[in-house]
C-alpha cells in the first residue's frame, strides 16, 4: 500500500485547540457548536473553527505557520470571532482535558457520518469521549525522517503529559490522577502509544494490514500519542491534555517545534535518533498521568529522575533551537508552570479553597481562558485563586 507523503517545510507549525462551550449559569457543558459555526461560516465551513465529536466542542485550528507567535496570533483571531457568538448564547469558553462536573451521558453528538460510524464501531468507548486536547503539527521534509522522529519523541510523552495534565476530575469526582483524559482516550484500540517502526515502508505495510483486516477504514483512525501525518507532511504530537490558556498552548507548541527541529538537524548531521524501550515509555506515561509534575520517571537502565528536573534539562537543551525559531519566551513558560503549578494542581487548589466546590473550579478555568494566562499558585493563599477574574488575570501577568 502506497501512502503519499506531502513534504513540509522544515519546522512549519500547526496547532489545534479543542475548546469547551460552557453554560455560564449552570457551568455545565452545553451544545451550541453547530449554530455558532454556521454563523461563523455563513452557512458553510469555517477555515479555522471546526466541529468535533460533541456539540459542546469547537476546535480552533491554525493555518500553516512559521513561528509559535504567528500560530498563537492565528488562534487568537479565531477565538475573537467565537467568543462574542458564544456570549450571545450565554456560553463561555474554556479548556481542560476533561470537564470537572458534566456527565458524558448528557452530551449530544455532532451530526456527522464519521462520528456516527465511530459510535457504531466503538460503542461505550466512544460515547464517553468527553475529553479535550491540544495537538501540535510540526513539518518534516521526508517520511523516513517522520518515522524516526515519532520513535524518538515517544521518550518525551511523559514530559508533555506531566506539563499539560489538566484532568483530575471526572463527572464531579476527583480521580486521584493528574490526567484522567489520557487513560480514557487510550482505551480506544488504535489510540495510545505509537508503535515503533523501522521506516516508512513498514508504516505503509502496517496501515495496509489494519485496513485490509477492517480494523480501520482510514489511517486517520490511528490516534497515537505521536503520529506521522502524511497529508500535512508533519509529525503530530497529540499527547497534551487540553490546556486552559493561550500561554500554555504556546509553551507546548514551542517545546514541540524545538524538539522536531533539533531532531531534524541531528539526522542531517548523520546521527541516528534514539528509540526508547516501549515498556519504559508506557510506565513513564502512567507515572505522568498519575502524579503529574510530582512524578519520577525511569531514565537509563535502572535510574529514576523527577520529571521536573527532566523538563528543566530539556528546556536548557532546547534553548538554542528556541532562539533560532523565535519562541524563547514561549519556551520559558515551562519554568513558570513548574514554579506556578500545572492545571491539575491549580484546579485542586481552587477546590480546596472553596470547600470542594467544583463550580468554583469551572469559574477559575473560565477566568484563566479569558485572561490568557494561568492563575499561578506561588506566594499566594489558595483563597486568592477564586477572586475576580480581572484581578487574577492581572496578577498572573496580563491579558490574553
Automatic annotation (TrEMBL):
Reaction equations catalysed: L-cysteine + L-glutamate + ATP = gamma-L-glutamyl-L-cysteine + ADP + phosphate + H(+)
Gene Ontology molecular function, alphabetical: ATP binding; glutamate-cysteine ligase activity
Single GO biological process annotation from the record: modified amino acid biosynthetic process
EC numbers on record: 6.3.2.2
Pfam family for this entry, one: GCS2
InterPro entries from the UniProt entry: GCL_type2/YbdK_subfam (IPR050141), GCS2 (IPR006336), Gln_synth/guanido_kin_cat_dom (IPR014746), YbdK (IPR011793)
UniProtKB keywords: ATP-binding, Ligase, Nucleotide-binding
Keyword Nucleotide-binding tagged: yes
Keyword Metal-binding set for record: no
Annotated function: ATP-dependent carboxylate-amine ligase which exhibits weak glutamate--cysteine ligase activity.
Similarity section: Belongs to the glutamate--cysteine ligase type 2 family. YbdK subfamily.
Name the record gives this protein: Putative glutamate--cysteine ligase 2
Organism expressing this protein natively: uncultured Frankineae bacterium
Phylogenetic lineage: Bacteria, Bacillati, Actinomycetota, Actinomycetes, Frankiales
Amino acid at each position: 500500500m502506497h501512502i503519499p507523503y506531502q513534504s513540509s517545510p522544515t519546522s512549519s507549525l500547526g496547532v489545534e485547540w479543542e475548546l469547551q462551550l460552557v453554560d455560564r449559569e449552570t457551568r455545565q457543558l452545553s451544545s451550541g457548536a453547530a449554530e455558532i459555526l454556521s454563523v461563523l461560516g455563513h452557512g458553510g465551513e469555517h477555515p479555522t473553527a471546526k466541529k468535533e465529536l460533541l456539540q459542546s466542542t469547537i476546535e480552533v485550528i491554525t493555518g500553516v505557520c512559521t513561528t509559535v507567535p504567528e500560530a498563537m496570533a492565528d488562534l487568537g483571531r479565531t477565538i475573537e470571532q467565537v467568543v462574542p457568538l458564544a456570549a450571545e448564547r450565554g456560553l463561555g469558553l474554556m479548556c481542560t482535558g476533561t470537564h470537572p462536573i458534566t456527565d458524558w451521558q448528557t452530551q449530544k453528538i455532532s451530526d456527522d457520518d464519521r462520528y456516527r460510524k465511530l459510535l457504531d464501531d466503538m460503542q461505550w468507548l466512544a460515547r464517553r469521549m468527553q475529553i479535550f486536547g491540544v495537538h501540535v503539527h510540526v513539518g518534516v521534509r521526508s517520511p523516513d525522517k517522520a518515522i524516526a522522529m515519532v520513535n524518538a519523541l515517544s521518550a518525551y510523552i511523559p514530559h508533555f503529559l506531566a506539563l499539560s495534565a489538566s484532568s483530575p476530575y471526572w463527572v464531579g469526582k476527583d480521580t486521584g490522577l493528574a490526567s484522567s483524559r489520557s487513560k480514557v482516550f487510550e482505551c480506544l484500540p488504535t489510540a495510545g502509544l505509537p508503535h515503533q517502526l523501522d521506516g516508512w515502508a513498514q508504516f505503509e505495510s502496517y496501515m495496509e494490514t489494519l485496513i485490509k483486516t477492517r480494523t480501520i477504514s482510514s489511517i486517520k483512525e490511528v490516534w497515537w500519542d505521536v503520529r506521522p501525518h502524511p497529508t500535512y507532511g508533519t509529525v503530530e504530537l497529540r499527547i497534551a491534555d487540553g490546556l486552559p490558556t493561550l500561554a500554555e498552548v504556546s509553551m507546548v507548541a514551542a517545546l514541540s517545534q524545538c524538539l522536531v527541529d533539533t531532531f531534524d538537524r541531528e539526522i542531517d548531521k548523520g546521527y541516528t535518533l534514539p528509540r526508547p524501550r516501549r515498556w519504559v515509555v508506557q510506565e513513564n506515561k502512567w507515572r505522568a498521568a498519575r502524579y503529574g509534575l510530582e512524578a519520577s520517571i525511569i531514565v537509563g537502565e535502572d535510574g529514576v529522575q523527577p520529571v521536573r528536573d527532566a523538563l528543566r534539562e530539556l528546556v536548557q537543551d532546547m534553548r538554542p533551537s528556541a532562539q533560532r525559531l523565535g519562541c524563547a519566551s514561549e519556551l520559558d513558560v515551562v519554568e513558570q508552570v513548574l514554579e506556578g503549578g500545572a492545571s491539575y494542581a491549580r484546579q485542586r487548589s481552587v477546590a480546596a479553597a472553596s470547600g470542594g466546590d467544583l463550580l468554583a473550579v469551572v469559574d477559575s478555568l473560565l477566568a484563566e481562558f479569558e485572561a490568557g494566562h494561568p492563575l499561578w499558585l506561588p506566594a499566594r493563599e489558595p483563597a486568592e485563586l477564586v477572586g475576580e477574574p480581572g484581578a487574577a488575570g492581572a496578577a498572573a501577568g496580563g491579558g490574553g
